[in-house]
Amino acid sequence: MKSKLFRSLEWYHWAVVVLSLALTLSAWHITRTQAYEKSEALFKFQSGQVIDLLVERMAKYEEALRAGVAMLKVMPPEMSRAEWKEFAATLNVEERFPGINGIGVIHFVPSSKKAAFLAWQRSSMPNFVIFPAHDKNEFWPISYIEPRQTNFKAVGLDMAHEQNRYNAATKARDERSAQITGPINLVQDDQQTPGFLFYVPWYTDEIPSTYGDESSKLAGLVYAPFIVNKLMGGALSNVNDLINFTIRDQNTLLFEDVGRDTDKYQPMFAETREVGMYGRIWTFELETSRAFAEQVETVEPTVILVTGIVIDILLITLFLTLSQTKQRATQLAQKATRRLNERRTELELAKAELIKQNEELIEANKELDRFAFVASHDLKAPLRGIAQLSEWIEDETQGTLSEDAEKYLKLLKSRILRLERLLNALLQYSRVDKKGQPFESIDFPDFVSELFSLNAHPQGFALQLQENVQEVTTDKEALGRVLGNVMNNAVKHHHRDSGVITVTSQWLNGALEIQIADDGPGIPVKYQGRVFELFHTLKPRDEVEGSGLGLAIVKKIIEKMGGSYRLETNLSGGLTFVIVWPISEKSEVYSGEGAL
Prior knowledge:
Elements: H1 2-7, H2 11-74, H3 81-91, H4 93-96, E1 103-107, E2 109-110, H5 114-122, E3 138-139, E4 142-146, H6 148-151, H7 163-175, E5 179-180, E6 195-203, E7 218-227, H8 228-235, E8 243-249, E9 252-256, E10 270-277, E11 280-288, H9 290-296, H10 300-324, H11 330-396, H12 403-430, E12 440-443, H13 444-454, E13 461-469, E14 471-474, H14 476-492, E15 499-508, E16 511-518, H15 525-528, H16 550-560, E17 564-569, E18 575-582, E19 585-586, E20 589-595
Parallel strand pairs: 13-15
Antiparallel strand pairs: 1-4, 1-7, 2-3, 5-6, 6-7, 8-9, 8-11, 10-11, 12-14, 13-20, 14-19, 15-16, 16-18, 17-18
Helix pairs in contact: 2-10, 11-12, 13-14, 14-16
């Protein structure tokens, strides 16, 4: 019976089915290929970001070491340990160069000058010794190292006693370039994890009798010790968990990502890159993580394939029905065929529209990625360099500039700070649409008080809590950014040096209504809608600290969460910001008042 039914179909019926199936398979293949290529591009970008961040950070460390060389050149030949400590404190390496273990000086001491060198060092450090013993006729002892309390075991350690340290030191001397050692264990590292030393050679025309080589003018090295795990924590602290990687120096494992999947997960992409790193070759083994696969996973190809097969089954069913009723209802069959053709055209148009929207979404995501990359690398890195240069100029010209020049330098630093705030605000604004945080329970009054304190407002401003709900379950990060920006905006635009910010909250139709009132100058009604626009402020840029994005970010977050907001003028003449915030749970109301 079934065989007879299928034989009743005409050849063109089968042609339509085959064509539909071919279109379905083609669309499925194209969509899957596009998804794969997009995932591969993301992997290449993320892998390159890991390496670029590390290379960029090593270049920053080289700048710090060359600053030490410059310092030694302008100081007297026998610069004291106290003067090096003061330089290191001014450089502030622990905060400005995260990941570095310290910064120090290695003096080159020929055997003929060893006694004079020891006498000089013991004048400020009586128990100074060069260790351990070796059979070479030259010495490379660590004379100064800061911070000393975490590196005291290294003072006096001779680089000539161990081959990796010695090879890199002589190579830096011979090639007159920055070098790093092969893998070593630092004497100051109790865990004895992989580390290395970073050398920059130091030459001077004034070779004293206590150290240095008169023929080559080599005085020594400025160096920094690194524990690789600590270096990676400082250099790659902002890298997400989409890429797992290891770093090797030849056959020695320097670093393995602690987030690396330990089960039998098969990565989507993997590659090995060799990177020249100051005289060494570091091998990066990079692969996608499980989080990467979860992020790029898409069901669109499967949906297209299943939909196409369903359509083919429906077509076959329809053709069978038409064949059975063809002789009895030819006219009805023709009408049904026309409707079928129209439906197929609509499906093809809908599919084309879906493909177009998908391409637009892919392009928008690429634009957002490019924006984040430009803001965090191409803009922020040069901006940090400009800021550092301005600080060096200020230090070098202290007390020598005219009043106008000092004013211009101060104006330059303020413009740099404003641009940095603007970049941070732009990044914050662009990331609002990213996936939100899991909901968590918070104590609302304590949460508001903590937000107010974290903004470091002037002492003249106080926070007033009135009739607030007690416990709230919501996206803590999103709510914190909204409330923090609103309170900060109220303080920043206040017309006096003191004031009161009053926060009141209540449950309203299953949502949380929050009122943030101030006793400031207020905003005229005709301007209240404009304050939510990008880069809009009601005062000149030089009169108010801000990027012009604070309330725009507030607006975007509230709308993303499905809430609403409005501005009202209160009885004190100030402004009340009313927020209706969707919520998942609610509990008891906190009744009471308090000022901070």
